[in-house]
Write a structure and sequence with these properties.
Strand content: 15-25%
Number of helices: 24
Distance between the termini: 35 Å
Shape: globular
Number of strands: 19
Helix content: 25-40%
CATH architecture of the largest domain: 3-Layer(aba) Sandwich
Radius of gyration: 23 Å
Structural class: alpha+beta
Number of domains: 3
Strand order of the largest sheet: 2-3-1-9-8-10
CATH class of the largest domain: Alpha Beta
């Protein structure tokens, strides 16, 4: 939902110019407002309270603009007796009334995905990002003030930032397929960390702190069909580390997942899901089918390439069982060459994950039918699904190795380990999960989801990345996550009971996009062109030789970075970038 931009303090605020670059995030309309010491702007994708939810919102003496959704706005309104004070049905308005009562402690009550700016009636101004980093927010100092926006392109559009490459994060991109920490590929621009809350005074950061994604009380929401029941059923504390009854854990998992999917469906516009052949999206689909009377619309992408992994048959089997309104879309070589530069344009803060390609195609297919899309991001990280987690638990003599990147130079790996380090009391498996939640999840998977969907005016929602789900799943004993050759043990057991057609114990095919098959015939020509691109030479002097040699996921990241740099550093259009990198297609 939406794009935001603005400036706090200083002179020459350019909020109108900034928001003009973000209309794809908010195609329903723009609002710009200047006030003493600040200028804010909002491009709206209408999701909740279609008529009254326009921002900036003003209430209780304060002002807010936000991107995303605060899912527990219903509960906040009820539990804090706010009904008589609200003038809209917006999910962001209860925050303003809570802030008037509690100050910045109000941010800790939010359950959702958000990036926001709150200008308080107490004279304090805040920027905040949700604890998992589902929604993005970028900041930079400008003309005595602090400018902020949902995407880097807003700063470029307004002339606030020079297109000067920061080579260190660019090298991280080629090493990990994503970048680390707060730095971006643009010098002078940083992103707020997941969960970061910043107080701005006189155009400067006065203080900041971070909300942890496990900071919420580990309470399992009660199962209730009506709000009346919800008021009368108490929440029960639960510590899975001390409970070993699998049957009880399965019941509690059912309760917590159903509750999360229920609140993630709150919307005044059509919603559906992206369905792969995997466990995570099948779990979301199962619960959506349970909670909706009408068939839920689901989109699946398959690949038209020899030998490519194609999950359409498995997705269709689940869709038929659950009576989904299932729609498939194909991805072939022509799609690859058309979409690759468009993805590079959308990802102005880049990830070189090739999963961006089918995600973009799915969003393209869903546009016009759906406005809100639920997805399975976060299931692997919270329930222990990746093969690298299982390898991390094995002894070295059985092929075990740490769950960390393998293609990084020593300096980049040191930075990765610093970003990935979790609390000392974690198990080896939990440390591997923590590392992914701190690095790969916000800077790759969630970045991919945000940009590829928002490029088409769609909102992506992630029910697994919910504080109650995290409080249930992450502390689970290792045996409920990894057992033998299976990851996500408890989630598989639940899905076996809830939707056997998903075949949760079938051997996982793995998710691959056949990019190498499409790039290889043009590799020699592309390699020759890479050496002429300034940013590529600066970051990888031997790019041409490496591209010719190929192997181990080298070609797609280099091709993507070349497209990205031509578009975002040199000002080329996506079509011009493709021709300069790959020739005429």
């Amino acid at each position: 939902m939406c794009g935001i931009a603005g400036q706090i303090g200083g002179a020459d605020a350019r909020a109108a110019e900034m928001i003009a670059a973000l209309t794809h995030r908010g195609p329903d309309g723009i609002r710009v407002e200047e006030m003493a010491g600040a200028a804010v702007a909002h491009a709206r994708l209408s999701i909740i309270d279609l008529e009254g939810g326009w921002q900036p919102l003003h209430a209780a003496g304060s002002t807010v603009i936000g991107n995303g959704e605060i899912y527990n706005y219903v509960e906040l309104t009820r539990d804090h007796q706010l009904t008589d004070f609200l003038s809209t049905g917006s999910d962001f308005e209860p925050l303003l009334h809570l802030y008037a009562r509690e100050g910045d402690k109000a941010f800790e009550r939010l359950r959702g995905m958000y990036a926001l700016c709150l200008i308080g009636g107490d004279g304090r101004t805040w920027l905040a990002r949700d604890p998992f980093g589902i929604k993005p927010l970028y900041i930079m100092e400008h003309d005595g003030g602090l400018a902020f926006a949902s995407e880097p392109r807003a700063f470029l559009k307004a002339g606030l930032m020079q297109t000067v490459l920061d080579p260190e994060p660019a090298k991280e991109l080629l090493a990990f397929n994503y970048t680390l920490g707060a730095r971006t590929l643009f010098q002078g621009l940083r992103r707020l960390a997941p969960g970061e809350v910043v107080e701005v005074r006189d155009g400067r950061i006065a203080s900041n702190w971070r909300q942890g994604w496990l900071s919420k009380p580990p309470l399992i929401p009660p199962k209730a069909e009506t709000q009346a029941e919800l008021r009368t059923v108490p929440q029960r504390p639960m510590d899975p580390r001390l409970r070993g009854d699998e049957r009880e854990l399965l019941d509690e998992l059912d309760r917590v997942l159903e509750d999360s999917v229920r609140v993630h469906q709150r919307s005044d516009v059509p919603y559906g899901l992206f369905l792969s052949g995997g466990i995570d999206s099948a779990s979301i689909a199962t619960l959506m089918a349970r909670l909706n009377e009408r068939p839920v619309t689901a989109f699946t992408c398959g690949f038209d390439a020899p030998g490519a992994t194609d999950e359409r048959a498995q997705a269709e089997r689940v869709a038929r069982t659950l009576n989904l309104d299932w729609r498939e879309t194909n991805f072939g070589e022509a799609d690859f060459w058309r979409i690759a530069p468009e993805v590079a344009w959308a990802l102005d803060d880049p990830t070189a994950d090739y999963a961006t390609l089918p995600t973009y195609k799915l969003a393209e297919a869903a546009k016009g039918t759906l406005t809100v899309v639920l997805t399975g991001e976060g299931g692997d990280e919270l329930f222990g699904g990746y093969g690298r987690y299982r390898r991390a638990l094995r002894p070295a003599w059985l092929g075990g190795r740490p769950a960390e990147p393998r293609r990084a130079d020593p300096a980049a790996l040191v930075r990765w380990r610093a970003e990935a380090k979790g609390p000392a009391d974690l198990t080896r498996l939990q440390q591997a999960q923590w590392a992914d939640i701190a690095t790969w999840l916000p800077n790759d998977l969630l970045l991919k989801l945000d940009r590829c969907l928002m490029a088409h005016g769609l909102e992506g929602r992630t029910p697994f990345l919910d504080p109650y789900v995290a409080a249930f799943a992450f502390p689970l004993a290792d045996r409920f996550k990894v057992r033998g050759r299976y990851g996500k043990w408890l989630l598989r057991k639940w899905l076996e009971r809830a939707c056997p057609a998903a075949e949760p114990w079938a051997r996982k095919q793995g998710f691959t996009v056949p990019v190498e098959a499409w790039i290889a015939p043009r590799a020699a020509d592309i390699a020759a062109r890479l050496g002429k691109i300034d940013a590529v030479r600066q970051v990888q002097p031997q790019a041409a030789e490496a591209f010719k040699a190929g192997g181990d996921g080298v070609r797609w990241p280099l091709l993507f970075f070349a497209l990205w740099s031509r578009i975002h550093l040199d000002g080329a259009s996506p079509a011009e970038a493709l021709e300069s990198v790959a020739g005429r297609i």
